[in-house]
Amino acid sequence: MTRLLIFLFLPLFALGQEDSCAVFSPNTEPNIQTMGLFMNPPSWETIHYVVHVHHTDSFPNSYVPEEVIWDSHDHLNEEFEEALLEFELVDIIYHNFDEWPTSPQLLQPYNTCVPYSGLGYYEMNDYLEPIVWDRQQYMNVHVFPQFCAGILGFAWTAYTAATDMDGVWVRTNVFGRFGDQLTVPTRMENKTLIHEVGHYVSLHHVFRNVEFCGENLGDCLETGDFVCDTPPTKLNWSCENPICPPGLYDYTPNNHMDYYVDSCRTNFTSGQIERIHAALPILRPGITDPPDEPEDPVCYGDISGDWVVGMNDILLLLQHWGEIDWEQGDVNGDGYFTVSDVNIVLTYFGTVCPQAEQDPFYREETELIRTESVKSLLDLLNEYPGNATRSN
Questions:
Q1: Burial of 4: CB neighbours in 10 Å, binned 0-12, 13-18, 19+
Q2: How many Å apart are CA 8 and CA 24, to the nearest integer?
Q3: What is the pLDDT of residues 75-107, one digit of tens each?
Q4: How far apart are CA 390 and CA 342, in angstroms?
Q5: Has residue 11 got a pLDDT over 90?
Q6: Residues 27-33, mean pLDDT to the nearest whole number
Q7: The sheet that has 45-55: what strands, in order across it?
Q8: How far is Cα of residue 331 from the mean position of the Cα atoms in its chain?
Q9: How far apart are CA 117 and CA 5, in angstroms?
Q10: Per-domain residue ranges for the chain?
């Protein structure tokens, strides 16, 4: 069943706050039991992911170097080690966003922008559809130069088939721990990525639905951020001067899922870690499974291994004709090298498979070559008829 999504965003946008985050969530939170209810403690899980760098001439330094990304990858694993999560970076892909027709409109910060305006949503889906990796098997991390208003990042807390935007998004100027792309003084330690990945693996803001310090929202597993060891505190921008006094509400102002400056975000609670491991199989089924192995490419009739069915294969056939047990020539897989395999090679003669380093030789006069090859092989078969078929 396709999940309905609610876009939750803070009214602080209207105040021009430049440290905001957006969260997309299921409209009803599944009943995920945590906080000591595990029969066994959480164990290590691995999430494979790919980084998409969307760069544009409109934003200087939006082409983030690979060394920044690999350092960010190391940092991601360092911060989630306590949560028993490991991330394996599979690929880094660069996309020139200037090639997309509506990129100028989508890069506007307060008008038709990403992610929640109509144009920003639907155009981005069209743009992403051919480039995202299988979202049920890979976490897609997008480094993008501009979002609406003051958003520094956004993410989905659950898999949805409704949009190819499902994944982790981080604004370019707060991604990484070094580099010329960093321009926000309080966001230079890569904690925006950690925060958004926290959302991706099911965590909410610790201040979710809290209107005043210590507010009793009811059952902690069914309200707020659905975690019981994150007290109901108001949104915090500072760990030195938190809105809700730490001593009074028994918490340390250092959680990754609050809005503190980067230097203050250092911790996930035990309840958050339990929630991650309880929620992932429900909200993102298959994301911790090993990705499907790609099928080995096949070039039918290619014996020589050059991805072309051509003269190299004919020469090998001639060289080995009569060797019934020649495995390389057993094209049809029946265990023997016979005239049936020769016929397959002749049928596909002239085929240039996609993996080939294409040579014009194989694309010109193929019919003449085929005719001469057939004649040579037929002469050979007539000369050695006893070797042309399998004898029992």
A1: exposed
A2: 6
A3: 999 999 999 999 999 999 999 998 888 888 788
A4: 13
A5: no
A6: 54
A7: 5-8, 20-26, 151-156, 168-171, 139-144, 45-55, 85-96
A8: 37
A9: 15
A10: 5-283, 311-387
**Residue 372 has what pLDDT?**
56
The C-alpha R_g of the chain, in whole angstroms, comes to 29
Q: Looking at the predicted structure, is the pLDDT value of residue 141 above 50?
A: yes
User: Measured between alpha carbons, how far is 220 from 180 in angstroms, rounded to an integer?
Assistant: 42
Confidence of residue 387 (pLDDT cuts 50, 70, 90): very low
Cα–Cα distances (Å) from 193 to 168, 265, 276, in that order, read 8, 12, 16
Q: Would you state the structure tokens that stand for residue 104, as one six-digit string?
A: 């100028």
Side-chain-side CA neighbours of residue 280 (13 Å): 25
DSSP string spanning 34-59? Answer: -SS--SS----EEEEEEEEEEE-TTS
d(Cα 121, Cα 100) in Å, to the nearest integer? 14
Longest dimension (CA), the chain: 98
Structure confidence at residue 345 as a pLDDT band (50, 70, 90): confident
Between the alpha carbon of residue 94 and those of residues 53, 105, 142, 146, the distances in Å are 5, 20, 10, 16
Using alpha carbons only, what angle is made at residue 145 by residues 140 and 146, rounded to the nearest 5 degrees?
105
Which pLDDT score is estimated for 354? 63
Tell me how many degrees the CA angle 128-59-92 measures, rounded to the nearest 5: 45
In tens, the pLDDT along 152-180 reads 999 999 998 889 999 999 999 999 999 99
CATH number of 5-283: 3.40.390.10
